[in-house]
Amino acid sequence: MEFIHVTSNNREQTLLRTKPCVMALGFFDGVHLGHQQVIKEAKRAAEEQELPLVIMSFFPHPKEVLSNGKKIIPYLMPINEKRRIFEELGADYFYLIQFTKEFAGLSPREFVQTYLLDFGAKQVAAGFDFTYGHRGEGNMGTLKSDSDGKIEGIKVDKIECEGEKISSTLIRNLVLAGEMERIASYLGNDYQIEGRIVFRKKHVEVVLHPYYLMPASGWYEVTVNLHQETTTQIAVVQDGRLTLLQGQWFPFYEWESVRLSWKKRLPKGFVHEEVSRQVYLSSSLVGL
To answer: Can you tell me which residues the record assigns to a coiled coil (predicted)?
Structure first.
């Protein structure tokens, strides 16, 4: 998959390389099951038409730009993680459009003409509630007229789980509430993060890479992937810091990158028992 970060400086040069395509359109934070359905619908159409699959997304989040930075979006994943998932889903190209106030000011028709038609889109798949153009005045119902009938829209219906619409906002709220065991039903897999190992005096800390979201304070069961090995650990989140309780018994090297999968939040009874066990082990080791 080829990745191109499109800005005002390289847009014209990028257009020289575009070709007819089927496009999946959206912000795709978290690439949850709803997003995956949009991409799968686009992939199916691309294979039928024998055209490449293009994913077009945007960064930063529109709300951050339009609020002059006053509203900070707690992203679920960085761009590199999206790239990895998009490639696994079969995308051929990933255009990341730099979202600016000038871009936000485009009318719906201007957006379709200069960012969909100019980029070769013949069919465009997006969620049922996707909007585009100034103030979000364009939607999947206006796509045909805004493209002068040149683009066929593929509107993907709402995807629900347990009666709730699957959305990035819902998943963010679950992470921030520490309800990690519920997330796989919406995301398609456990919520995963990456960070670097830092040794402290009595524990191992994981410093998150930018654009990952830290769960609520508490104790969690996680799996840690490192050196092609996976181990189950107890993670403690407190005051915005992430500690691996059993990290000192795992062969970490400082500043190396690890991937954590969040399994579930541990009950208070387990926490009290584990604290007592850790205190006992520490006092026993002192006497050796």
So the answer is: none
Long-range contacts of 128-137 (CB under 8 A, 24+ apart): 128/155, 128/156, 128/157, 128/158, 129/158, 130/25, 130/26, 132/25, 132/108, 133/106, 133/107, 133/108, 133/109, 134/104, 134/105, 134/106, 134/107, 134/108, 137/107, 137/108
In Å, what is the CA distance from 161 to each residue of 33, 113, 149, 168, 235? Answer: 10, 36, 35, 13, 28
DSSP labels, 86-153: HHHTT-SEEEEEEP-HHHHTS-HHHHIIIIIITTTEEEEEEETT-EESGGG-EETTTHHHHTTT--EE
> What token pair was written down for 288?
């050796």
Domain containing residue 38: 2-158
How many angstroms separate the Cα of 86 from the Cα of each of 30, 46, 53, 92, 185?
A: 11, 15, 10, 9, 19
Chain segment 202-217, per-residue pLDDT in tens: 788 999 999 999 999 9
CATH number at residue 16: 3.40.50.620
203 and 279 fall within a common domain: yes
Q: Which residue has the higher pLDDT, 202 or 129?
A: 129
Helix (H) or strand (E) holding 155: strand 152-156
The Cα–Cα gap between 177 and 181 comes to 11
Q: Are residue 197 and residue 71 in the same domain, yes or no?
A: no
pLDDT of 286: 39
Q: Is 9 helix (H, G, I), strand (E, B) or coil?
A: coil
Predicted confidence (pLDDT) per residue in 74-101, tens digit: 999 999 999 999 999 999 999 999 999 9
Cβ-Cβ contacts under 8 Å for 268 (sequence gap 6 or more): none
The answer to whether the CB of 3 falls within 8 A of the CB of 79 is no
For residue 272, the SS3 value is helix
Which residues are paired to 237 by β-bridges?
218, 242
